[in-house]
Every structure is written in structure tokens, then in C-alpha cells.
Sequence to fold (335 residues):
Amino acid sequence: MEEELLQLKAEAESAIQDCTSTDELEALRIKYLGRKGLFSSLMRGLGKVSSEDRPRLGKLANDVKTDVESVFSNKKDELSTTANAQDSSLDYTLPGRYIPFGNAHPVTKVMDEVIAIFEGMGFGVAEGPDIELDYYNFEMLNIPAHHPARDMHDTFYVSESILLRTHTSPMQARIMEKQDPPLRYIAPGKVYRCDSDITHTPMFHQVEGFLVDRSVSFADLKGVLTNFTDRIFRKGIPLRFRPSFFPFTEPSAEVDIACVICEGSGCRVCKQTGWIEILGAGMIDPEVMKMVGYDPDQYSGFAFGVGIERIAMLKHGIDDIRLFYANDLRFLSQF
Ligand code: DAH
Fold:
């Protein structure tokens, strides 16, 4: 019996090794390992063996069966891998499939960069409503009804007292009204004006910034804005503060950077001046302070408003703002 078992093992293993197809392998499995197969019929002979020999032969029979089964399953794996490799419907020389990647819109990217710079200087980020009250957009910023400054804003009105905010400055009033100094915030978001040409779109983005504390000076404003332009454009880019007027700041300034195209020597983009305006700023007007309940004798603060599309245009040399909103992938995928 022992000999027969070993012989069966040798025969089965070599047959399995030599087989070349899964069908053939299945036939071998039935022949040797099946319920009515050769191995089973040998096992039936175990009953006639003397009780002395039975434990040893029983163990041998089990070992033989496990060995043959493992040779069988290895062969099965081997045959299925080669079968896949030979499948003629797969062509491994074909180029891979192109999966187009999306990415953030250039305005979103510049917006994120601007926010990160001010966060780095300790400013909190606050967002407010796009549909705003006339009260916050104008009244609380020292622009009463019939004030000529309202003309500059080309406002979209929803009703007499409700409008699409024309700037992010109303967030100054909304925050100061609720919190006491010291505070420093930026308010990023969309703004709306009824205006459209190569430098204007009816919707665009601004970041408002302001800081209020005891003895804040214009020098603090200059420091913060210089750090900003150093980081968003390049370190050491020249800055110029030009006197200007905004009803909610006094004194007010418009801030220019040296032209990013000609570096100050004069070109078409800077209209030969060598300078390009990038933002409005100033010291928060005492009238605004009073309206939110701050004592202008104790506190002072500065504020500024930056147009994000404008920064993006200067950073990337884009000469038509409308490109940002034309949804042309040839343009958008360059960023
Ligand atoms: N809100 C102004 C605008 O949209 C920009 C601005 C100017 C904001 C001066 C300020 C500021 O905070 O101090 O044109």
C-alpha cells in the first residue's frame, strides 16, 4: 500500500506538471483527486490494512493528498497567468488613456495666495453677504444718500434699500459694529458693478483689510502693504502712495507698484508712467469709527481694498480681464 501511494503521488505530480491547459488540468483533478478518483479508491484499501500499520499509512495517505493538491493549485495559478498574458484582445503597446486634470481657477489661486499672506500677518478671515443693505454698503461708510461718491460705484440695485455689494468695505462696518478693538481682519469675496470692458467685469473679487487698535499709524499701513507686495509680486518691488479720496478713509491713498512689465521705465501697460495702481487704502475715517461706536480719540485704524483680478492680470501678464470669465480651457489650463 505504501508503495502504491508513493507511486500514485509521483504519477499524479508529473502529469500535473506536464499539462498545458486548464481543461486538461481539470480532467487530471477528477482522475486523481475526485470523489471516485484513483486516490479515493486507494484509500478504501486502508480498511483492510492491519491495525498496527493503519496509523502510519493513514498519515502517509493524508500527506500524499496534500502534496498533490498543492502541486495542482500551483499549476492552476501558473496556467491562469499565462492565459491572461496571451489574451489577444489586450495590446500592451497602446499608449495609456489620457485623464484630463482639473485645477483651481487662476482667480481662486491668486485669492488663496492673498489670503495666506494676510493670515501670515495675523489677520482673521471674515466673509459677508453678496446681497447687501444700502446701509452697510454706503451709509455706514460715510456715503449718505445723494453723496456724489455713489456715482463711482455703478450699483446694481435689488430694491431701494438692497443692492449687490459694490465693494467688500461693508464688512468693515459689519465687524466693527459687533466687536471691540483691537482687531484685524480681511474680508475676501465677490463684488458687483454695472460695468464691462477690457478692464472691468460686472462681477469681480476684492479683499478688504482693516486693523484697529490704539495708536495705529499710516506707517503701520505702509508696513503691512509693503510686506504684501513683496510677497505677492517680488521682494523689493517699489511702492508709491498717491493722495486720493475715499469717504471712509482720511487721509486716503491709492497705492501703485512699479510697472511689472517695464519695471518703471514706461510702457503701454503703465501708460508711460512707470507705475501701476493696485489698491486703495487709508486711515479709517473718524466718522466711520463714531458710527460703529468706537471713540476716535482712543482708537485709530487703517483699511485697504485690493482687486484680485487686477493682481492676477499683473502677475500673469493678462491684458483682458474678460478672459477670466470666458471659460476657454485653452486659457484656463495654462495656470
Ligand atoms: N472700497 C474701495 C473700492 O472698492 C476700495 C478701498 C479704498 C477700500 C480705500 C478701502 C480703502 O478699505 O481704505 O473702490
Q: What stands out?
A: The chain has a mean pLDDT of 90.
